[in-house]
Design brief:
It is built from twelve helices and seven strands. By secondary structure, it is α/β, with parallel strands linked by helices. It has two domains: 228 residues, Spore Coat Polysaccharide Biosynthesis Protein SpsA, Chain A (Alpha-Beta Complex); 121 residues, no CATH class. β1, α1 and β2 form a beta-alpha-beta unit. α1 runs parallel beside α2 and α10 runs antiparallel to α11. Bound molecules: guanosine-5'-diphosphate-alpha-D-mannose and manganese (II) ion.
Amino acid sequence: MSPLLTVIVPTLNERPNIRPLLAKLDQALAGVAWEAIFVDDASQDGTPDEVAAVAAERPNVRLIERVGRRGLSSACIEGMLASTAKLVAVIDGDLQHDESILPRMLAAFAADSALDLAIGSRFVPGGGVGEWSAGRLTVSRFASQLGRLVLPVPLADPMSGFFMLRREVARRLAPRLSARGYKILLDLVATAGPGVKLVEIPYTFRDRQAGESKLSSRVVLDYLIMLADRLVGQWVPIRFVLFVAMGMVGLTFHLAVLGLFHVLVGQGFRPAQFIAAGTAMTVNYFLNNAVTYRDQRKQGAALLRGLVVFYLLCSAGLYINLEVAGSAFDKGAAWWFAGTLGALVGALWNFAVNTAFNWRVQA
Ligand code: GDD
Ligand code: MN
C-alpha cells in the first residue's frame, strides 16, 4: 500500500549522511506512513551501496540509480514520478534542511485540501541561514531577485530546495518543466502559473557537516539558462538563442583575427579569412560544448573526437564561407562586411550539421 508521504533525497556523494538523515527523518516523521526514495547520479563514494544496505534492513527505503549525470532538478522529478504517495517532499541529502518542519508541512496539507505546495523558507520571519558570509548572502539574494522575473506569485525563498507538494500536482506539471539545472522549486512554481496555492514555512539552513557542496560555479550558468528558457523558451528555442549568443562571441574573434592578419599584417583577404574562420570555429566549438549543448557536453577523449568531427562537418561550411566572403570582397565590399557575411552563412551550415550529427539530441 502506498504511504502518505514520499521523501525524495537527491544524492551525489553523500554516503556518510545517509544513515544520519534517515535517523532524523524517523524521528521527525514518527507516526506517519512515509518512505524515502534516494535518487543517485552515479556517486563515486559508495552512496548507492550504502542506500542499498539500509534498504535491505528496512522496508521504506528505495533507490533510483541513474548513470550519466543529469542534474539535481531532473533527479527530483524522477523521484516524484516514482512515487505513488499522496504527497511528495524533496530534501537535500546533506542534513542542511531542517527535517523537523516536515510535520508542519503535512499539517498544512491536512488543513487545506486546495494547497499545492508547502515550502521550507529561509527568508520568512523565523527562518535563517546560519553562518553565511555576506558574499554568499548577496549572491543568494541576487539569484532570488532574478528568479522573481519568472515567478507568477510572490515567494520569499524561490531558491529553496526543500518543499512538499501533492503528487498529482507534480505529475501534472512534469511534462512542462524545464528540468534544467538545479532550481526545481522555481521551475515548479513558474510552470504552475498564477493559480498556484502555496505556503512558506520558516526553517534555518544548517551548515554542512560531512561531504562537500556540489553546487558551485557550474550551476550558476545552469540557473541562468533555466531562467532564459523560462523567459523566452516559448517563442524561440533556447538552444538557438544560446547558439546565436555564442556565435556573437565567435564573430568578435573572427573579426579581430581577420583585422589582425588582413589589415595589420597585410595578409591577402582570403587567407586571412581562412585563418580567422578557423580560429572562430575552434573557439565556438568549445563555447558551444560548454553552453549551448551543456546538457550533453563532451569531456576528455570525446571532446577531442568531437572536435575532429566538428572540423570535418564544418569544412563544407568553411568552403561556403570563403566563397561568399571572397566574392563579396572582390565586388568591393569592405573587409569586415565581407568577413561577417561569410561567417554568418558558414555558421548557419555549422549549426544545422552539428545539431544533426555531432551533439545529436538524444530522444
Ligand atoms: N542526484 C543528484 N544529482 N543529486 C545532486 C546533484 C546531481 O547532479 N547535485 C547535487 N545533488 C544533491 C547533493 O548530494 C545534496 O543532497 C543536494 O543535492 C544539494 O546539493 P548541495 O551541493 O549540498 O547544494 P547546496 O547546499 O549548495 O544548495 C542546496 O540548498 C539550497 C538552499 O536550500 C540545494 O538544495 C539548493 O537547491 C537549495 O536552494
Ligand atoms: Mn548542501
